[in-house]
Each structure stands twice: as structure tokens, then as C-alpha cells.
Sequence to fold (247 residues):
Amino acid sequence: MGSSPDVDAQAQLLVESFETSGAEGTGAGIAFLGHDGNIRRRWGRILNVKENDTVGDTRARMSFYVRGGSGLPQEQMRIESDGTTVNSNGSWATFSDLRLKKDIEPIDQPLGRLLSLKGIMFEYIEDTKEPILKTDQTRMGFIAQDVETVFPEWVREGSNGFKQVSLVGFEALTVESIRELARQQSELRSAIAERDASIERLAVRLESLEAENERLRADHARRADLENRLTDLEALMLNDRSVTDGR
Fold:
């Protein structure tokens, strides 16, 4: 039942398994028992499990159970030592009751602040001082120092001095950003509608002016014709007077 002193030196509780076969599912564990009526059932456990009987890493798993439809315990939530967290309904709840809140204010400039964030692709460096971080995986995320300039409340410094990001309220920020986009879109549509109406009014006015111009042209043509006729009549009268005077 050998153990490693550097691992166990600071442990308050050490649970070891005598299983040596390495079979799948074997390992040390802690179970939390409770009564379901007069039946004792396991409602939670912390288990050190083997992925299979030949290969794969041994990992820790914390599981929680509720009474299932059959009356037997059914796994409700699981936390794996590789960081995977799953639950049966796929969502996580936080307290949001109005009665628990004060100093309620709208989010200031949600869209502009959201667009100030810069998403990146990255990998953790191999010689990181945080061995828990996987260095062979490409990820998407933010840089804490950049986020801190826009949302300082999202950034905190761990005991090791490295900055951490927790996107608390990101859903609310997204909703308000979409709302602001919708408002801008509505204002833009109103402006476009007003512009189109103005263009339509100008088109009607232009049509009216063109009709008026055509009328004026016709009047000018008639006036020119009358003036030509008057000139011809005056010339004829002068010619008749000359003939009469010559007699």
C-alpha cells in the first residue's frame, strides 16, 4: 500500500485502495450515504477511477445523485478532474431574485464595451508555472490585462500572482448589446423611411415642376407665334399704306 510522501505530506485525509488489478472503475473513493425512507442510498461520491483495464490515466470524479424516475439514485451532476463539469439539465443557476438585489442600474454602454473586448486563439506555454493547464490544446478566450481595462470586475489575481477572468454577467451584457443594436437598427430604419419619404416628396415636386415647365414652354411658343403673326400683320399694313400713298 505504498504512497508518495510528497503527495501525502499535507493531506488531512488519505483514502487508499487495496485494489491492484488496475481494472476499469477500481480505486479509492468516498461515498456520502443518506436515508431514502428506510433505505440507505448513496447520494454523492468522490472516486478515483481507472479509464479501462489496460490504458488511460487514473482520474478523480465527484458525482451527485437525486432520486430518479425508477426510485433509484440517478446521477445529477459530475465534476471530472480534467475540468469537465456536466449536469443533467445542462444549465447552472445563480441567485437572481429581485428581493436579493439593490443599487440596480442599467449597464453603461454595453455594445461599445462588448466590442472593446478582443477574442483570441492561443495555447498555454509549456513552461507555465501552473501545471494544471493543458499546453497541447488550442483555445479561444481573452487576455486578462485587456479585459481588465474594460471590465475590471471580471478580473482578479490569484494567490500565485496570475490574473484570472470570470465572465460574470456576460449574458446580461450580450442581451443589452443586442438591445442597443436593435435600437440603432430601428433608428436607422426610421431615418431611411424618412429619407425615402423625402425623396418621394421631391419626386412629386419635380414632376409638378416639369409639368409647369412644359406649360410655360407651350405658353412661350404661343406667344412667339402671336408675336410673329403681329409682325407679319404690321408689315402687311405698312405695305398697304405705301401702296395707297403712291396713288
Residues 1-11 have pLDDT under 50 and may be disordered.
